[in-house]
From TrEMBL:
Name recorded for this polypeptide: Kynurenine formamidase
Membrane-spanning segments: none
Organism of provenance: Araneus ventricosus (Orbweaver spider)
GO molecular function, a single term: arylformamidase activity
Alphabetical list of Pfam families matching this protein: Cyclase (PF04199)
Listed GO biological process terms: L-tryptophan catabolic process to kynurenine
Family, per entry: Belongs to the Cyclase 1 superfamily.
Gene3D superfamilies on file: Putative cyclase
Length: 204
């Protein structure tokens, strides 16, 4: 038989950021209600912006555009930001903007604080994921997207893979984090399911 030992940080690879990561008194990994980890996906596509600007941000207009195109509301969804960054993994230079361990040189897409604030003020989303290193973009100094979302118990999913393979709407996300007691984060398996005949909208 085979026996293995496993050791890892809780915020590496594809992982969940529990709200308590930045917001004291909010849910930790083991406290997030299960129904909030399984819901319909709302894929916000910013690949064209990110191709032109490594520090591109999701803006409020991007969220409203998704609702207009899909005919659905973001309420009750798990929002997934598709920037195209997942294809750059595991090239450190391409993915983070630097081959060095220097946070001042980080460059990758993220979510604007205005978009985060609009979401918590106007919609009831469960989580927000992205195919880059962090919810806040690489040049962020205040991590406000994290702080705004987590204060309202909206969790984050980072380093999400294969977002280019799912439709802008119509998929269901199943986020399955390792259940770490009082953990601020955890390695997470994310599965998306959707009908094979679903029409694809968006850039591949």
């Amino acid at each position: 038989f085979q026996v293995d030992e496993y050791s890892s940080g809780t915020h590496v690879g594809t992982h969940i950021d529990a709200p308590c990561h930045f917001a004291k008194g909010r849910w930790c990994v083991d406290e997030i209600p299960l129904h909030r980890l399984m819901s319909h996906a709302a894929v916000i596509d910013i690949t064209e912006k990110a191709e032109k600007d490594r520090d591109a941000l999701v803006k409020v207009q991007d969220l409203l555009k998704w609702e207009m195109i899909s005919g659905h509301t973001l309420d009750g969804s798990i929002v997934m930001v598709r920037s195209g960054w997942g294809k750059r993994w595991p090239d450190r230079q391409a993915y983070t903007g630097t081959a060095e361990f220097d946070t001042s040189k980080l460059h990758f897409p993220g979510v604007s604080k205005e978009a985060a604030q609009w979401l918590v003020d106007n919609r009831n989303i469960y989580g927000l994921g992205i195919d880059s290193l962090s919810l806040d973009n690489g040049i962020s100094k205040d991590t406000m997207a994290h702080k705004i979302l987590f204060d309202k118990n909206v969790y984050g999913l980072e380093n999400v893979a294969n977002l280019e393979k799912i439709p802008l709407y119509g998929a269901t996300i199943h986020a399955m984090p390792m259940k770490i007691g009082k953990g601020s984060g955890a390695p997470t398996r994310i599965v998306a399911t959707f009908p094979r005949n679903l029409i694809y909208y968006g850039k591949k």
